[in-house]
Structure to design on (713 residues):
């Protein structure tokens, strides 16, 4: 495919002009970029299992363009370089040309595809315009996983130093820094936050409790996106309230050596993905915990749920998302949610990392329907949902803010507006940040919150204030 | 050697050879996939979601479910063409006779009238798809020369077969058209395992990405060590 035939001067919908490596990498890679990329590709093919995947896709890609209708980014941008199949073919062409007999033979007879710095530049561009939401996979008649290929492309780019610095700096701190987490929250800082949350809960719920830290032999070791400790106190208090109300307060703990569930390796690097997983499991083993309980974070949940068994084998502890735990409690009658507190219209956003595989689709809806009268679904929903526009790490890249608002999140904003909801529930740290920005950008008349923020309002706390009392107090406070 | 002798050769030994290439070539593709799954199994492969993969694959046999705004024309024409591609070569009465004499397998045949309509629909839909590839910028962008050539090659046996069996519209002598029909069909047999047409068997294995997501443990460290040596820097 003549890659160079792509209109190079075509303006991006989100940025006014093309730039070389537009995502502000820490250092611009050196001149041997093409050679180094091919060397990295060769090593990856040697040590990983991607070769059969690439062989299969190269052999059977029909390039029917059917995926074009599924991608919310393409629908909003109209830029043909956002066609999933086009993006995938950038990598397949490289593989075919340099690593297969077929490509070598073709290169003898026709003008061969050539990997140039421009092509790598384009990969750096288009692989980070994709949110790796994998909606296109469900739209491909052959079931091609374009998300997996995008991720492989990002992995190869990262091996030659082309990786957004926002992601790179976070991973450096998580794997090699002192705090071992992406937001540089120190242990003292965490203890401060937990003490603050205890006081807040005492004021709001009327019960005294201390967050359990570094306790051993507990059933659940809790990990959330560490940024939640700084930005989402209501979600955390909602989580804590469920554990308290269910009588499980002595069954969980937060580790003090590692308390970050974030795993940016899922977005761009097999290497980091595995090492962050190992770090997380080591903490659970140090505390002799039995299960891992992941807070409201889509990618952290998927990374732990899908990749702990892959990398740890028999050492793999069980992984639960907090919504699964809450639903278990609700079904078992361990918690009660007051159905008269939430009067607003509520809708639910499916985080791609939870819903695309069908893993968590009905559970949150069952929780919400148990105490929300006016619940409406978005269309489409569940495994067919549209991405918030900040997936695949894009939400962390500040330089992409305009692109996320104008292009990547446009369809989502329209979808939210159509529901007429007052509250959008998004049980994912990434989605929440993106959706909050979207709501502000498009001036939508609604509030974005986590599922447990809402649960916190409606949960009945044994020996504490009733949800109705708390609602009255909150109203007074708001005045 | 005259044309009739050529036809005899093409329908005899050449058919056997090219059919063998098709079967062995596609068999190799399937074996490679099974071998990969076997290797993966040795590396802590979790359960393969066969049920989901099968359900998804069969789900695409019901086209209505998958038609979205903007895909109606493509999905309909592509679906009809694929039905023709599968049904005509196997169940056309003349082919049924051929299969019986060659493989000893008796298959039910479809009526002549149905076959004619389906053949014309297949050719029409194929040309429509070709038109989309040529005239729609997005299709053109993802197309390579082989995508156009293969589509034409797929349609050639249908066109020549139809003309050979309808003397009223056939501009060439019957035996020339028949030879074209047989040879183009056999060319298709030969190229299928080695081109994207291999999706005739790989369509099922394209869906095992759940297996591909189960990455090889330790591979990331080994790649980093090979590339960076001691100087491992994130």
């Amino acid at each position: 495919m003549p890659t160079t035939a792509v209109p190079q001067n075509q303006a991006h919908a989100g940025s006014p002009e093309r730039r070389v490596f537009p995502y502000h990498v820490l250092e611009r890679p050196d001149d041997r970029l093409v050679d180094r990329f091919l060397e990295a590709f060769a090593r990856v093919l040697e040590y990983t299992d991607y070769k059969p995947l690439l062989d299969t896709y190269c052999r059977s890609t029909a390039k029917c363009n059917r995926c074009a209708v599924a991608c919310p980014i393409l629908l909003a941008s109209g830029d043909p370089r956002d066609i999933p199949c086009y993006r995938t073919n950038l990598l397949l062409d490289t593989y075919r040309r340099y690593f297969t007999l077929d490509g070598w033979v073709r290169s003898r007879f026709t003008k061969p595809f050539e990997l140039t710095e421009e092509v790598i530049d384009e990969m750096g561009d288009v692989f980070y315009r994709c949110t790796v939401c994998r909606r296109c996979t469900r739209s491909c008649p052959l079931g091609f996983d374009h998300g997996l290929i995008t991720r492989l492309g990002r992995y190869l780019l990262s091996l030659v130093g082309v990786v957004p610095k926002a992601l790179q700096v976070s991973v450096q701190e998580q794997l090699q820094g002192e705090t071992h987490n992406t937001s540089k929250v120190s242990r003292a800082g965490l203890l401060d936050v937990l003490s603050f949350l205890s006081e807040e809960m005492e004021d709001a719920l009327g019960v005294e409790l201390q967050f359990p830290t570094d306790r051993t032999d507990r059933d659940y070791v809790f990990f959330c996106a560490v940024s939640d400790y700084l930005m989402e106190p209501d979600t955390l208090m909602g989580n804590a309230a469920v554990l308290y109300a269910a009588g499980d307060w002595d069954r969980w703990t937060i580790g003090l050596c590692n308390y970050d569930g974030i795993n940016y390796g899922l977005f761009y690097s097999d290497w980091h993905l595995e090492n962050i997983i190992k770090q997380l499991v080591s903490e659970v083993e140090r505390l002799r915990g039995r299960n891992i309980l992941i807070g409201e974070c889509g990618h952290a949940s998927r990374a732990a749920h899908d990749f702990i068994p892959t990398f740890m084998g028999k050492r793999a502890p069980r992984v639960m998302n907090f919504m699964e735990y809450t639903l278990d409690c609700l079904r078992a009658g361990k918690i009660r949610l007051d159905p008269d507190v939430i009067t607003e219209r509520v809708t639910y956003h499916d985080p791609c990392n939870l819903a695309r595989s069908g893993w968590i689709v009905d559970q949150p809806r069952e929780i919400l329907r148990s105490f929300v009268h006016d619940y409406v679904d978005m269309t489409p929903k569940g495994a067919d949902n549209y991405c918030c526009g900040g997936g695949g790490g894009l939400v962390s890249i500040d330089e992409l803010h305009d692109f996320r608002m104008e292009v990547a999140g446009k369809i989502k904003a329209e979808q939210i507006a159509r529901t007429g909801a007052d509250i959008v529930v998004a049980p994912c740290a990434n989605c929440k940040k993106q959706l909050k920005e979207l709501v502000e950008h498009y001036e939508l008349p609604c509030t974005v919150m986590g599922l447990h923020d809402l649960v916190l309002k409606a949960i009945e706390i044994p020996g504490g204030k009733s949800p109705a009392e708390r609602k009255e107090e909150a109203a007074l406070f708001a005045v | 050697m005259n044309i009739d002798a050529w036809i005899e050769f093409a329908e005899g030994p050449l058919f056997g050879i090219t059919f063998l290439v098709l079967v062995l070539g596609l068999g190799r593709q399937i074996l490679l996939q099974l071998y990969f799954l076997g290797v993966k199994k040795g590396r802590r492969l979790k359960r393969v979601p066969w049920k989901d993969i099968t359900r998804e694959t069969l789900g695409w046999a019901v086209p209505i479910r998958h038609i979205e705004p903007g895909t109606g024309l493509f999905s309909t024409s592509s679906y009809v063409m694929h039905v023709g591609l599968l049904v005509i070569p196997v169940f056309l009465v003349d082919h049924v006779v051929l299969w019986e004499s060659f493989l000893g397998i008796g298959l039910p045949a479809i009526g002549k009238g149905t076959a004619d309509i389906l053949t014309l629909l297949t050719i029409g839909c194929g040309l429509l798809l070709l038109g989309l590839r040529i005239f729609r910028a997005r299709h053109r962008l993802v197309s390579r020369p082989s995508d156009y050539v293969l589509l034409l090659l797929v349609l050639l046996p249908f066109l020549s077969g139809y003309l050979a069996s309808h003397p009223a519209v056939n501009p060439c002598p019957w035996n020339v058209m028949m030879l074209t029909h047989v040879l183009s069909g056999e060319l298709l047999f030969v190229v299928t395992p080695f081109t994207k047409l291999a999706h005739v068997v790989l369509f099922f294995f394209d869906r095992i990405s759940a297996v591909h997501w189960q990455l090889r443990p330790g591979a990331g460290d080994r790649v980093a060590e090979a590339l960076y040596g001691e100087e491992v820097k994130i």
Chain B has a mean pLDDT of 91. Chain B touches chain A through 59 residues (CB under 8 Å). The CA atoms of residues 1 and 158 of chain B lie 26 Å apart.
